[in-house]
Amino acid sequence: MSEQRIVIEINPDGSIIAETDGFKGDLCIKALQDILGKDEFFCSIKPSDEFYQETKVVEDTTIKAGRS
Amino acid sequence: MSSVVKTNTMFVDSECLIDAIKSTGILVTEQSENRIVTSRVDYYGAETFVFENGRFVFMHDSTANRMGNRYPWNRSNLKEWKDVGVWLKDVGIAYDKAYKAKLERLAEEERCREEERLRKLVESRTNEIVAKAEEEGYYVKKSERDGKIKLVLVRSVY
After folding, report:
1. Is the minimum CB–CB distance between A54 and chain B shorter than 8 Å?
2. Which residue of B has its CA nearest to A67?
3. Which of A10, A22, A67, B1 gives B149 a disulfide partner, CB atoms 3.0 to 4.6 angstroms apart?
4. How many domains does chain B have?
């Protein structure tokens, strides 16, 4: 059993910053899209090294999303 | 005779112009979209601002300017007669002040509207995210600090 964790910060201007932990590869993107919606405009994605290492158990990805 | 008096102020806003006229002690006796009639009276009757080409122009008898205090048509309704140039200068100063205050008020109203729009946006986004996260099986912990909302979503996978 492992833990998946997403921390989402919603700024007063409506922009969103999200960090994921415990997702393999690009599953973090899918998880965020499941939560934030597929149409959400990701204006900045900062993958960590683990993002590219699918065999690793822990990934850490920061996604910055904004909405007009 | 008609006359043109040039002022530094372009009177474009009727609300501010009416406030400015009143602040000089002159009454507005009639007003419509294109006309503001004042209690100043000259040979041709009540002196009037008429909206032309995007601004209000003051229509008056130019003789009043040349004769100053000896002008006979103003005695009936005003304690103090100011010739058109002097009076329009006073109106211009009051108008600038009223117009500036109006712009500040409009900007403040716009700022409040934008603040309210963002507050509702953040509230609805937060509710959407929480609902979706719970649907996806996450435990959600919500906190708020400095106007920023923080959501921690946690779930166990096997």
Report:
1. no
2. B121
3. A10
4. 1
